[in-house]
C-alpha cells in the first residue's frame, strides 16, 4: 500500500522506514529482451475504469522493486542483483581485496572517536575492477559494436508504448534532437558510442536498473539527498532516496558533507535501483578537516577508488575550474556559488597552481574506465544569480569541459556536462547552444535553471520554468530544485514536491520535443477528465494522492468521485456535458448541411483575407 | 502587522476578516504627478539592513490601502474614492437613477425567498454614465490627445526605478515589444490610443488605483475568485480579493455562479483598489435558472447595465463562439471546456441561430463606451487539453475576436483578448503570433497555458511554465491557475500559491523582455544572499513569510539569521566566503599579472579555436 512505511528493524540507534507498495491502480510488469532474454525491464501499468473501454496506460518506471507488490524488501540485505551476472559474463573484470575503510572516511578524527551510524551488514569485501588494460565502460563496448544487456534494457524502457504511438506522433519542435519512432538496442549503442548518451552503471552497482541519459531519450531528472554538518542521519537519507524514486527521480545524488559519509553511502548504494552520483571532493574535503588548501591528489584519488568500489555510478568532477578563470569571477554579483567550484578555486589560489583535477584528469579517466564510473563534469563557475549568467567565467569553463570530454572519450569514459544555475529566460538557449557546440553533444545535465532570483521558498517553480525550456532545447537530465533551495535542507515533503515539479518540467520538454510516447498519458488523462472518470484522472496523474485529496477538500463524498460534475460549476451546468450535445448535433448534421457550413466559413474567411484590416477603418485620430 | 486578520463587525450572519498592514520591512509611499499634481501613486519601499549600504528597493504595489499602516480600513464603508473627482471633472458624465436591484440578481426565485448575504450598507443609488453621445473611455481621450490623470498615474507606476535602471539595462529578447527606457504619460496615451494597452477603469469604480495592461508594460496577473453553486460566501470572497492583491494580483475576476451574485459583487467592488472583471453570461444564466437556451439578449443586456452601474471594469464576452465554429469542436478530445463558450454553444445549437453576442456586438459596445467597461473578448473555444491546442476551432474564434476588436475600437472601447488554456510548449509561440497578427496587438490575456495535462494538483506549475513563456513572447496579462485547478475551489492558501506562482512567471517574462526596472529586485536580493543578509533576502522575496519559515525549519535560532553561513554547507565551509578570497586575490594581482593571465587565456582560446575538434582525434571505432 502506498505511503505506509514498511518498518524494518535494524540493530543500532536508527530504524529504517521506507515507503513500499504499488502506486494507486498500478502494477509492475517486467518485459524481457530479444537479444538478452534474461533481462526483465520494469514497466508500470495503470489500470483504467472499465467504462473507459481503454487498455491500461504504461509509464516509465524508475521506482525499483519498492513498488512491486510481490517484492520482499529488506533494507538490511539490500536489493537483489540485476546485472551482476552481465558484468561477470563479459570476462573483463576481476575481484580483488578492496580498500579497507578508514576512520576518516566517516569523519572520525580529532575528538570524534566513533561512528554514530550503524554499519551496513552485508558489505561486499571483494569489489570488481577491470582486468589490466581493459576498459569496462558501456562506451567501450558500444565502440566495439557490442549491444550489452544494459543497452537492450534501456531500449525497451525508452520505447514504452511507442509502437502504438507512432501513428499519432506530433513532430514537436526538436531543436536538432533526432528521436526515432522506435528505440532499438542498436540505436542505444550508437548513441553511447558517439558520446551523445550515457548509461551510468558502475560494475560494482549490480542492483542498478540501467537507464540512459541523452538528448534523444526521455528527459531524466535527478534528486539530491545527503546529510550536512548540521542535519540528517542514515535512516532519513535512505528513506529520501526511496521516496524520491517513488515519485519519479531517475538518478539520485548523495551530496553528504557531514559525518559518516562512507557508511551512509553504503546503505544508499545497496538499496538503490537508480544510478547514484556523488561529488567526491566533498568527502575528500572532510578528510582534510574542511581545509581546502590541504587537499592533495593522493587524498582525492583515494576517495575516487573508495567510492568506485562502493559502486557510485557517476562522479561530479570540477576539473574545469582552472586557475586563470578564477579571477574572472571577482566582479560577479554572487561570485562562485558551486561548493565544488569554490573548493577548487580556494585550492588554486592558496597554492597559486593549476587545479590538480585538471592536471591529473587523464589519471581520473583511468579510474573511471576501470569501474565504468561516468563523468559529470561539474560547472564550478556556474552563475549564482541572473546577473552573472552567461559570463566569461561560465563559458570559459564550459569550453574547458568540452576539451576534457574529448580526453575522457579517448579513454572510453562516459561523460555528461553540468550546467547552470541561475539564468533569465532569454539567456537559456545560448547555454544549450554553447554546450552542444563546445561539448560535442555530450549529454547536458542542468540545475534548473532558475529564471528569477526573487522567490526563495518557490525556487522549485522559478527553476521548473527554466528546466522545461532547457529540456526542450536539448538538456538530457534536469537536476531538481526543492522549495527549500537557498533556505534549508529539504525534508521528505520537499523531496516529493521537487521530484513531481521536475517530472512536470521533463515531461513538458518531452512533449515539446515530439517524443512519440509522451503524449499518450496526457491524452488518456484528458479523456478521463472529459468523461468524469475521476478515479482515472487521479490515478493517471503524477501524484494521485494529492489530486484526490484536493478534490475531496471541496467534495468529500465518495459519490462525488463518480458524479458527472465537479465543484467548479456544480451539478446544474457543466461545459463538459454540453459538448456531448455538440457531438450529437454535429453527428446529426447531414453531409449537405456540413458542406454548407464549411462553404459559409470558407466564404467568411476569404472575405476576411480580401478585405483584411481595410474592412474596419481605423478611428479618425489613429 | 502582516497576516493578522483585522476583524470588522458587520450586521448580518457573516463577519468580514481581511488581512491588513504592511508587508515585512515595507512602507507605502505615494508619488505625485507633474501634469496632475493631485494624483498619489502608491509604491512599496522595502528597507534593507544598514550593512547593505544600499537605498531601499521600490517595487510595484497593487495592494491598495490595505498595506498602508496609516489607512483606516472599514469594509462596511468601502475604500475612499481615488478617481471620482477625475471622472466628474471631465464634464462628460451624468448621474441618474440606477437600475433597481431585482430578486433574480441574487438568485432569488422558486423556493429561494430571501438572500442569505448581508447587503452592502453604502450602495451608490445614482451611478454615472456618459452624457448622450459621449464616449467616456480612456481610449476616446487618448485618441483626442488627452493625457488623463489615469494615464499619468500609470506612467508613474510603471516607471518605477527606471531612471536608476537605464544604465544597467539588459536588452533582453523582446520579440517585437517596444519598451522604452522611460515610460511617459504621453507614451501611455499613445499605447492606449492605438489599442496596444488598456486601462480598465469603469467610471463607477472610483476606488480604483489605475493600472495598464499591454505588451510594453510590466506583465500583469489576474486572480479569479467567486462563489459557486456548492461553496463559498460573501465574507470569504472579499477576504480572498484582499488576500490576492496582498500577494500581487493586479486584477481580480469575480466568477461567482451561485446565489447572491449581485450582493457579493457589490462588497467586492466597493472594497477593491484593482480592476474587477466578470463574465456577465454567468449571472445571466443564473437569472434563467441555469437553462442556457432560455437566455435572451434582453436579459443579457440588462445584466451588462446592472454590472456596469456597479463599476465592473472589464467584461469577458464570448462573442467569438459563432454557430459555424461549434461543430469544429466535435472531434476534440475535450470538446468545449470554457463555461461561457459552452453556454453560447448550447444556445446557438438549441436555436440553430448565430450567437446573439456576435450579432448584438455593436450594442454591447455602446454600453461599454458609456461606462468605460473594457472588453475581455473570451476564448470560448480554447483547448481543454494539449491534444486540442491550436486547432481549427480555436483559431477560427481568434480571427473573429480580431474582427470584433476593430468594431470595438471604432466605438473607442478598450479591448483585450483572452487566450488558452492547454498548450504544449512547442505550440505556445504560434498562439502569440496568431494573436498579434489577427488582433492587431490588442493586449493578450491568457490562462496559463498548461504545458502538460498529467499533473492535476500541480497545475499552477504546469501552467506557470507556459505562462512565463507566453508572457515573454508578448502576453500582457496572465490569469493565474491554482493548485486546485480541475479538482476543486481554491481556498485562501491556494489563492496565495497561485498568485505568487504567477508573479514569478510574470517577473521572469519581464526580465526576459528586458524590462529596465525588473532586474533591480533580483540584483538586490542576490547581493543580500551573497552577503548573508538573511533578513533582506526574506524581505525582498515575493513571499517573505514562507522564505523565513523555510529557513527556520532547519536553523530556527534567531542568531542563524545573522550568521554568515546556512544549513546547506554549515559553518565550516562556505563557497560564498571563499569568493571573498577570490576578490582579495584578484585585487592583489597587479596590472602585469592581470595582463599575463589574460594573455594566457587568449592564447589558450586561440589554440582551441585553431585546433578545435582536431586536437583530440576521435577514438578508433567512431
Distinctive features:
alpha/beta, disordered C terminus, S-adenosyl-L-methionine (chains A, B), lyase (chains A, B), iron-sulfur (chains A, B), homodimer, zinc ion binding (chains A, B), TIM Barrel, eight-stranded parallel beta barrel, three-stranded antiparallel β-sheet, 622 residues
General description of the model:
The structure is a homodimer of 622-residue chains. Chain A has helices at residues 84-89, 138-143, 149-158, 162-165, 185-193, 234-246, 261-270, 280-287, 297-310, 339-351, 356-359, 361-371, 392-410, 428-438, 459-473, 492-513, 518-530, 534-540, 544-554, 575-588, 591-611; strands spanning 5-8, 16-19, 26-32, 40-46, 57-60, 93-95, 128-130, 197-198, 213-214, 220-225, 251-254, 276-278, 314-317, 374-377, 415-419, 444-447, 477-479. The model of chain A is unreliable at 1-14 and 604-622 (pLDDT under 50). The radius of gyration of chain A is 26 Å and the shape is globular. The first copy, chain A, has 2 domains: 26-35 and 134-519, Radical SAM ThiC family, central domain (TIM Barrel); 565-621, no CATH class. In chain A, the strands form 5 sheets. An 8-stranded parallel barrel of chain A has the order 10-11-12-13-14-15-16-17, surrounded by 7 helices. Chain A has a 3-stranded antiparallel sheet with strand order 3-4-5. A two-stranded antiparallel sheet of chain A has the order 1-2. The first copy, chain A, starts with a strand and ends in an 11-residue tail after the last helix. In chain A, β3 and β4 form a beta hairpin. The longest helix of chain A has 22 residues, at 492-513. Chain A has 21 helices and 17 strands. Chain A is an alpha/beta fold.
Amino acid at each position: 500500500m502506498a505511503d505506509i512505511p514498511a518498518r524494518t528493524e535494524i540493530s543500532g540507534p536508527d530504524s529504517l522506514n521506507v515507503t513500499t507498495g504499488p502506486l494507486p491502480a498500478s502494477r509492475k510488469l517486467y518485459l524481457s529482451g530479444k537479444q538478452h532474454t534474461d533481462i526483465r525491464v520494469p514497466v508500470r501499468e495503470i489500470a483504467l475504469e472499465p467504462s473507459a473501454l481503454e487498455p491500461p496506460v504504461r509509464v516509465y518506471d524508475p521506482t525499483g522493486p519498492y513498488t512491486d507488490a510481490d517484492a520482499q524488501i529488506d533494507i538490511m540485505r539490500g536489493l537483489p542483483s540485476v546485472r551482476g551476472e552481465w558484468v561477470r559474463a563479459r570476462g573483463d573484470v576481476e575481484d580483488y581485496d578492496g580498500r579497507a575503510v578508514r576512520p576518516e572516511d566517516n569523519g572520525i578524527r580529532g575528538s570524534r572517536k566513533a561512528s554514530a551510524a550503524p554499519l551496513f551488514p552485508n558489505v561486499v569485501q571483494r569489489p570488481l575492477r577491470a582486468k589490466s588494460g581493459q576498459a569496462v565502460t558501456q562506451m567501450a563496448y558500444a565502440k566495439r559494436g557490442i549491444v550489452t544487456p544494459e543497452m537492450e534494457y534501456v531500449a525497451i524502457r525508452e520505447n514504452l508504448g511507442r509502437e502504438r504511438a507512432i501513428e499519432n506522433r506530433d513532430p514537436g519542435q526538436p531543436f536538432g534532437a533526432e528521436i526515432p519512432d522506435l528505440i532499438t538496442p542498436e540505436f542505444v549503442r550508437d548513441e553511447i558510442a558517439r558520446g551523445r548518451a550515457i548509461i551510468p552503471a558502475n560494475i560494482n552497482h549490480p542492483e542498478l536498473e540501467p537507464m540512459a541519459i541523452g538528448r534523444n531519450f526521455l528527459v531524466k531528472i535527478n534528486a539530491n539527498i545527503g546529510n550536512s554538518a548540521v542535519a540528517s542521519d542514515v535512516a532519513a537519507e535512505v528513506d529520501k532516496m526511496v521516496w524520491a524514486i517513488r515519485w519519479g527521480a531517475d538518478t539520485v545524488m548523495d551530496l553528504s558533507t557531514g559525518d559518516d559519509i562512507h557508511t551512509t553511502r553504503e546503505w544508499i548504494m545497496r538499496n538503490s535501483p537508480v544510478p547514484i552520483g556523488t561529488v567526491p571532493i566533498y568527502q575528500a574535503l572532510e578528510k582534510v578537516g574542511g581545509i581546502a588548501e590541504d587537499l592533495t591528489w593522493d587524498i582525492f584519488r583515494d576517495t575516487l577508488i573508495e567510492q568506485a568500489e562502493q559502486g557510485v555510478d557517476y562522479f561530479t568532477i570540477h576539473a574545469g575550474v582552472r586557475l586563470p578563470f578564477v579571477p574572472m569571477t571577482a566582479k560577479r554579483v554572487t561570485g562562485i556559488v558551486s561548493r565544488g567550484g569554490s573548493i577548487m578555486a580556494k585550492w588554486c589560489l592558496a597554492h597559486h597552481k593549476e587545479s590538480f583535477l585538471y592536471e591529473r584528469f587523464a589519471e581520473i579517466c583511468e579510474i573511471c574506465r576501470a569501474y565504468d564510473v561516468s563523468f559529470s563534469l561539474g560547472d564550478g563557475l556556474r552563475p549564482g544569480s541572473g546577473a552573472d549568467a552567461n559570463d566569461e567565467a561560465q563559458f570559459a569553463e564550459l569550453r574547458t569541459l568540452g576539451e576534457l570530454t574529448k580526453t575522457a572519450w579517448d579513454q572510453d569514459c562516459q561523460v555528461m556536462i553540468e550546467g547552470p544555475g541561475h539564468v533569465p529566460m532569454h539567456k537559456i538557449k545560448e547555454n544549450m547552444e554553447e554546450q552542444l557546440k563546445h561539448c560535442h553533444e555530450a549529454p547536458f545535465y542542468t540545475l534548473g535553471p532558475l529564471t528569477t532570483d526573487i522567490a526563495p521558498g518557490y525556487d522549485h517553480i522559478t527553476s521548473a520554468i527554466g528546466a522545461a525550456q532547457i529540456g526542450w532545447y536539448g538538456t538530457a537530465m534536469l537536476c531538481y530544485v526543492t522549495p527549500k533551495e537557498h533556505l534549508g535542507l529539504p525534508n521528505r515533503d520537499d523531496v516529493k514536491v521537487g521530484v513531481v515539479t521536475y517530472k512536470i518540467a521533463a515531461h513538458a520538454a518531452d512533449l515539446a520535443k515530439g517524443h512519440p510516447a509522451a503524449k499518450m498519458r496526457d491524452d488518456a488523462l484528458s479523456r478521463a477528465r472529459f468523461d468524469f472518470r475521476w478515479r482515472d484522472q487521479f490515478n493517471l496523474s503524477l501524484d494521485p494522492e494529492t489530486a484526490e485529496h484536493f478534490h475531496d477538500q471541496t467534495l468529500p463524498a465518495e459519490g462525488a468521485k463518480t458524479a458527472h460534475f465537479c465543484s467548479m460549476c456544480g451539478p446544474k451546468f457543466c461545459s463538459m456535458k454540453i459538448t456531448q450535445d455538440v457531438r450529437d448535433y454535429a453527428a446529426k448534421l447531414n453531409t449537405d448541411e456540413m458542406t454548407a457550413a464549411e462553404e459559409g466559413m470558407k466564404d467568411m474567411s476569404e472575405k476576411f483575407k480580401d478585405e483584411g484590416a481595410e474592412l474596419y477603418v481605423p478611428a479618425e485620430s489613429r
